[in-house]
Amino acid sequence: ILLLVRNPKDVATSFYHFSNVMSPLPSYETWDDFFVAFMTKKMAWGCYFEYLSEWNKYTDNENVMTITYEELKENPVLGVKNIAAFFGISLTEKELQNVVERSSFQSMKKNSSKTHGSFGNILFRKGGVSDWKNLFSEDQNKKMDKAFEECIGRTKLGTKLKYEIYCKA
């Protein structure tokens, strides 16, 4: 199992934009309204911190590889090499470069109408890291940090995310 996790602040930011263009999901008039719903576990797919907490139980399982979105953005070649090794797949240099190129956000966004139809425009927005800084107030940032620490901060998965989010920022 490949477990891809992401900075909870960017998850919230992405889900906010996603919710506001997906008519079956509740939409939010303001970011502040969404933030309250996110932090009080009123999301359509549950609480991200609880999701991470559940997956933390499996981080030592040899059949589970955890990688962060941030790691893949920072060094996609190394990320693909590690994923291939985990699954026991040997790649030539040309195959490796092909996978890296075709799995880049830009490539997936460009091909999204072919791969996901009209839904592609909704799924592929920016694909960046730290977009949360455009929405979060200082108070919201502190609240999210506190919730992160309380829920998963001292876990193996929490430590991995913290390193990627705070130590490399």
From TrEMBL:
This protein's UniProt keywords: Transferase
Stretches that traverse the bilayer: none
EC number: 2.8.2.-
Top-rank lineage group of the source organism: Eukaryota
InterPro entries: P-loop_NTPase, Sulfotransferase_dom
Domain annotation Sulfotransferase: ranges: 1-155
Top EC group: transferase
UniProt xrefs under Pfam families: Sulfotransfer_1
GO MF assignments: sulfotransferase activity
Signal peptide: none
PANTHER family from the UniProt entry: SULFOTRANSFERASE SULT
UniProt family annotation: Belongs to the sulfotransferase 1 family.
Protein name per Swiss-Prot or TrEMBL: Sulfotransferase
Taxonomic placement: Eukaryota, Metazoa, Chordata, Craniata, Vertebrata
